[in-house]
Amino acid sequence: MRKNKFCKTFLFAILCVTTFNAQQKKSLWTIEATSTDNYVGAPIASGKIGILPWKEPFSVQHVMLNHVFDIGDAGVNQALQGINPFHLEMLVNQQKVDSKSITNWKQSIDMKKAIHSTSFTIPGQAEIKYHIAALRNLPYSGLIEIEIKALDNINLQCLNQMDIPGGYIDVKNRLVTANVGLDGGKAMILQTEASSSKKAHNVVASSEFIFDRKKVTVRNENQQKNILEGQIKKGETIKFSLVGSVCTTRDFNDPKSEAEREVIYVSFLGTDRILNEHYALWDELWKGDIEVEGDDEAQLVARSALFNLYSNALENSRLSISPMGLSGTFYSGHIFWDSEIWMYPPMLFMNQGIAKSMIDYRTDRLLAAENRALSYGYKGAMFPWESDDKGEEATPINALTGQFEHHITGDVAIAFWNYYQMTKDKDWLMKEGFPVLQKIAEFWTSRAVKNTDGSYSINYVIAADEYAEGVDDNAFTNAAAKKALEYASQAAIICGKKAPEIWKQMSDKLVINKMSNGVTQEYKGYNGQMIKQADANLLAYPLGIITEDAQIKKDLAYYSEKVDKNNGPAMTFSVFSVQYARLGDADKAYAYFKKAYQPNQRPPFGVLAETATSSNPYFMTGAGGILQAFINGFGGLDITENGIIQHKSVLPKHWKKLTIKGVGPERKDFTVTR
């Protein structure tokens, strides 16, 4: 079964690459689909809600809510699907418009404008196109714009009702009318309010048609359905919109009123103004861009990765990004090391506002991390492996990672220090950064143990390679702790504090072992077992502990043969690509770059799954790894105490030029040419 599954996945990847290549004659900002075969939808998001359009006419599979949790079937907090206000059905001449009744179906994602578009023909009756936006300027709202050109005289009905996911209780449907000065008419707002299953939150969704009252009318049916209807003459074109908003008690004391206000806001100002504001915010985001000359497929891969990370985060939100972002409920919407080690670094280079929100997430949950350390007999702050909205451990109890995958605490420290290195914001370091770094250092001093030879060990952990459970002196865990202690010591000096001597002593003497063949040993007793993902290799990049080219090559050659070929996650190969690019091996760098995404792409939009054989897109972590291959590998960029530097690197043979635009606080451009 696994072999067959892998073959199917490989064929999917080929289809997806073909789709990407087909864009060459069109736009390097647009990904287009003309077939629904093997279809996997591409999410769009605003940083607060995620919308998943699908292949059937007007279909939206679900709406995800960012950091809105309730207890799920696994007994831990799980991110909620929201009430979906974007459910639409269309009838033309009393016949439902569905996949069987249409031709010339086409979908596209305009990454420049963050718009998902669909068009099709109802033979002999109408040409229809619609666009979906998760509004950046109104991040709890989305907008669907619909245009219909009649090919004959037609009778039109468009039905909107709420799609309520399973598990909601105390459901209340209502019709809200409001006088908002719309040509003398009243707004008819469809609204549903419900509680999540364990009543952690109330969720309210509102929707409203925005339309020309001279062309069509809207009526309500049983307070559960709004119906837009009218007669359209042959050759006539009409346009109308549906605006929807989803608000919860996580973010609003009165989500009911706020959900109403947001749809009224759009209907009063008009969709043109709202969309222009949305486009302007995306223009600002795209000041951080990656341009590839000579490889259109790579260009689309770069922009797709950026588009998805930008979509799933929001400046000033004080929220981070889950491994699957707002694409679905995979990994329950929790925050892992994926955030700090894989997704945060490219955001730190390309958009410091988003990067700041990602570390604000940890700052706000420091007290929870301190309580967790206390609960396990340690000092300082011990961050959870899977963090829920309160910053408490949310790993399902059937996994030991929640108790033992401790490198996450070092990963948080690395992210904090890199933010200071990038921004040189001393005021932030003193008020927010150092207090976190200090508590993390205190944790490691209580977690590590001193050996008889004066060295220090960290025993019984789950490695970054999660196939290694209950091991001692894991290379990455010890290295992450080493960097955390080192950075805390440096931060103390900058802040005018005296760092405890044990911080430097322990950092200098934490054990990192080698095997008899000279390869960095993943953990004490490791002797060649299959690994899930990169671990010891991470000491070269991103940690910068191993710097000798010969050692880096030796470790790469050894561990690249040990990675699980079927179930290893995408980011392993992106970090291999970074290291080979810096070593000057363009062929291997490019081979691993392709391996980081091609087997994981799913047609028709190239959305990323976690592994070559999995079906859980969109994998935001993989997007972060791909971007590091561009920025830190082929682009050679790095953060140091002297700010951003550019290492000597190489490009794939067919790339003519790589430009990384809008980097750092000064928004500089960095270029690599052949």
Automatic annotation (TrEMBL):
InterPro entries: 6-hairpin_glycosidase_sf (IPR008928), 6hp_glycosidase-like_sf (IPR012341), GH65_N (IPR037018), Glyco_hydro_65_M (IPR005195)
Keywords associated with the record: Hydrolase, Signal
Protein name stated in the entry: Glycoside hydrolase family 65 protein
Phylogenetic classification of the source organism: Bacteria, Pseudomonadati, Bacteroidota, Flavobacteriia, Flavobacteriales
Domain of life of the organism encoding this protein: Bacteria
SUPFAM superfamilies (alphabetical): Six-hairpin glycosidases (SSF48208)
Pfam families found in the cross-reference section: Glyco_hydro_65m (PF03632)
Keyword Hydrolase among record annotations: yes
Signal peptide span: 1-22
The Glycoside hydrolase family 65 central catalytic domain, residue ranges: 305-526
GO MF: hydrolase activity
